[in-house]
Specification:
The structure is a single chain. By secondary structure, the protein is an alpha+beta fold. The protein is 35% helix and 23% strand. The chain is built from five helices and seven strands. It has a seven-stranded antiparallel beta sheet with strand order 5-4-6-2-1-3-7.
């Protein structure tokens, strides 16, 4: 299955760690990804996620994953659903259309990388066409995202 994940440039201590229930169930701290089997899945899923530290976008292929119901996952993270009530399914699947936007994917590692996009370089290229106030706004948003990642990593 073709998946995508937003990741920091280099590992941040504690980044992605903290959902111990998933560690005990899966045997590892998951790297969260979303389905990108086709352009429609990529864009729909891209609009329904909130990446913690989006410095690069990694698109990769893997058959070693767990599909986790997206609504259940959010409810669990907001303490309104018990972990044991989350719908978790072991991949791989032969039929991907049911997984378009309803699931996030927990993978052990990024493997079989198809391509990587350096988001900061991409944004810098785009910002050359923007006004100074628009550039400042984007820089502020990137800085805020990095700050959230470090605060989350520290607990």
């Amino acid at each position: 299955m073709i998946l995508a994940s937003y990741q920091p440039y280099s590992p941040i201590p504690g980044y992605g760690v903290g959902e111990k229930d998933f560690y005990y169930k899966l045997g590892y701290d998951p790297i969260w990804a979303f389905s990108s089997q086709n352009i429609l899945q990529f864009w729909l899923n891209n609009w329904t996620i909130d990446p913690t530290c989006p410095q690069k976008l990694v698109v990769f292929e893997s058959d070693d994953y767990y599909a986790v119901n997206k609504i259940d996952l959010e409810a669990y993270r907001n303490d309104s659903l018990d972990f044991n009530d989350i719908h978790i399914y072991r991949g791989p699947f032969d039929y991907y259309e049911d997984l378009e936007v309803g699931y996030d994917f927990a993978v052990k590692r990024l493997e079989n990388i198809i391509y990587t996009v350096d988001l900061e370089a991409y944004i810098k290229n785009l910002t050359n066409r923007l006004t100074e106030s628009q550039r400042d706004f984007i820089k502020t948003k990137i800085s805020e995202a990095k700050g959230r990642a470090f605060r989350k990593a520290r607990g």
